[in-house]
Structure formats: C-alpha cells, structure tokens
C-alpha cells in the first residue's frame, strides 16, 4: 500500500465516517460533513498551514474536487472549535485500532505551548485564567502559555493528553488525567510509566501502585540506583522525538489560537495528525511508525 498524504486522508475519512459520524442526525445535513472536517484538519496540520486563510485558499484551489464545499474562514473556525469532542474521539479510535493500545509501557512528558510573547499581548489575551508564566528547562527560557502533557507508547501513539497551567505540579496533572480515564489504566498488568525526575514523589508512586502501575524515572544523587534505570536514556529519547515531531513538523507552537477553546482544538488537531500517521504507518507495515516524512508535502 502507498504511504502518501492522499492515501492517509482517504483511509482516515473512511475510518471516521464508518465508526464515529452519526448519520441519524435530524434536519438538513451540513454541507461540510464531520468526516470531511476532521480529514481537512489533519491535512492542514500535516502540510504546515498555520494561517487559516492561506489554508482555505489552498483547499479551494488544490482540493476542490475532493471537497466541493469549503466554508469561509469564520465558518471554518466555528466548525473547527465545535469539533473538539469529535477530534478527541478520533484520537482514541485510532489508538485502539492498533496493537500499541495494549502496550504496557507508557512514556510521559510535558512540553510548553506558548500563547503570547510580549507583555501587551499577555495583558489583552483571552487566555487569562488558563495560561500563565512557566519555565522550559530544555530551552532555558520562560514562556507564557500552557503545558501539553502527553502520554504515549514507545511507538509514538498518543494514549492520553491534556493542557494545563504551567504552574501546576506535574504529578497533580498526571493524577487528574488518570482519574479522568481510569478505564485506560485498568486491565493493563505490569503497566510501567516512564517519566523524568519531575514526577518523583513517594505519594505519587504509592497512588500509581494502587492503580496497578509502576514508575520508572532517573534517580537523584542521594538515592540508590533504581531498577531499570540503565535503559532509561534510550527510552526517554523517544518522547523527545515525539515532542520534536509535534513542534518541528506539526508546528505546535504556531497554533494561532487566541482563546482556550481555540488553542485546545488546534493542539488536538496536531495530536490527531500524529496519531493518524502512527496508525497508518502501522497498518501499512512501515519500519518507523512515528515518521511523518511521507505525509508532510
């Protein structure tokens, strides 16, 4: 099977149309269906169109035969923000349709999602109350925005994700994510969460133990070397690769959102694009499942 963007979008459209879209809705059906909307959202993220106006012009000129109706920019923005629950369902649908869903090794990390840079932009932003100042140790810089918490498999398939205020404790955010979807943890004997030192806590590890999970993290200098730590460096590079894909190829930090709903759906759009690439690479037997090279042009 070919691995190009057209093939991926066709397979994704069929998958969503068959298993998520409700055809029993009353009233006149929308001119742009939910399946078409989600497919176009993935294509936009894959092709790196941060500007919605440029993206819609591209769709009308290049993809008009595949998508006969394309709304104007206000209509597209409204439909996309309203599609956040649908995009979340699509991410979970693709994850559960692969063998990676049954992987009992999860990699956990967070990365900044900057929402404003200048002080005047921060003051007039509609993100007040959601976003805040935080520190990115990887790049030794402060930022104003949110943090994306991502739980994925070593193959790069997203399992859980959340946006949170950067001042919140990482362990509290991950605990809340596990509390919100306890069924994702149950039925996984020997579940191992691989994290960095920021998740170190006796109480947190005890809570994970009650859920039937273990924590693997680097040890502090004052601690004895933890079991399995010798393999940690190579595994941790995988989540760095996933974050690099989200930021380098899917332009996570160029989301363009101005409200919490706008930022949330644009981040979800990029997580879905990553999940779609991993899903399609797995289905077509590609050696590197988290590679987007075949789809970003």
Walk me through this protein's architecture.
The chain is 44% helix and 15% strand. It has helices spanning 5-19, 34-47, 52-62, 73-82, 84-96, 119-124, 170-180, 202-210, 232-249, 260-283, and strands spanning 105-116, 132-136, 141-152, 158-164, 191-194, 213-216. Strands 1, 2, 3, 4, 5 and 6 form a six-stranded mixed sheet that branches. Helix 4 (73-82) packs across helix 10. The two termini are 18 Å apart.
User: In CATH's first tier, which class of the domain at 102-253 applies?
Assistant: Alpha Beta
Output the helix-strand order. HHHHHEHEEEHEHEHH
Unreliable sequence segments: none
Shape: globular
Average pLDDT: 89
Distance between the termini: 18 Å
CATH superfamily of the domain at 102-253: Ribonuclease H-like superfamily/Ribonuclease H
What assembly state would you assign to the polypeptide chains in this entry? single chain
Strand content of the residues, in percent? 5-15%
**Helical proportion?**
40-55%
Number of helices: 10
- Would you report the number of β strands? 6
Please summarize the sheet with the most strands: 6 strands, mixed
Please identify the structural class as seen in this structure.
alpha/beta
């Amino acid at each position: 099977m070919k691995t190009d963007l057209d093939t991926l979008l066709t397979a994704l459209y069929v998958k969503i149309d068959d298993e998520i879209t409700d055809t029993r809705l009353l009233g006149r059906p929308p001119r742009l269906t939910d399946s078409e909307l989600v497919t176009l959202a993935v294509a936009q993220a894959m092709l790196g169109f941060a500007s919605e106006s440029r993206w819609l012009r591209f769709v009308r000129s290049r993809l008009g035969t595949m998508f006969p109706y394309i709304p104007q920019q206000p209509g597209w923005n409204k439909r996309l923000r309203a599609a956040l629950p649908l995009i979340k369902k699509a991410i979970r649908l693709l994850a559960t349709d692969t063998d990676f869903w049954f992987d009992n090794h999860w990699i956990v990390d967070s990365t900044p999602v900057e929402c404003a840079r200048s002080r005047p932009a921060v003051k007039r932003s509609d993100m007040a109350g959601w976003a805040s100042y935080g520190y990115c140790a990887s790049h030794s810089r402060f930022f104003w925005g949110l943090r994306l918490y991502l739980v994925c498999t070593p193959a790069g398939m997203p399992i859980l994700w959340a946006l949170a205020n950067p001042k919140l404790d990482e362990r509290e955010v991950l605990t809340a994510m596990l509390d919100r979807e306890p069924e994702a943890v149950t039925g996984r004997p020997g579940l191992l969460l691989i994290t960095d030192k920021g998740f170190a806590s006796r109480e947190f590890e005890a809570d994970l133990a009650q859920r039937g999970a273990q924590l693997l993290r680097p040890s502090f200098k004052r601690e004895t070397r933890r079991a399995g730590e010798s393999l940690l460096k190579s595994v941790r590079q995988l989540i760095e690769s996933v974050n690099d894909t989200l930021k380098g190829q899917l332009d996570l930090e160029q989301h363009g959102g101005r409200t919490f709903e706008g930022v949330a759906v644009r981040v979800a759009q990029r997580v879905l694009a990553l999940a779609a690439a991993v899903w399609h690479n797995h289905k077509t037997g590609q050696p590197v499942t988290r590679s987007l090279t075949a789809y970003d042009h």
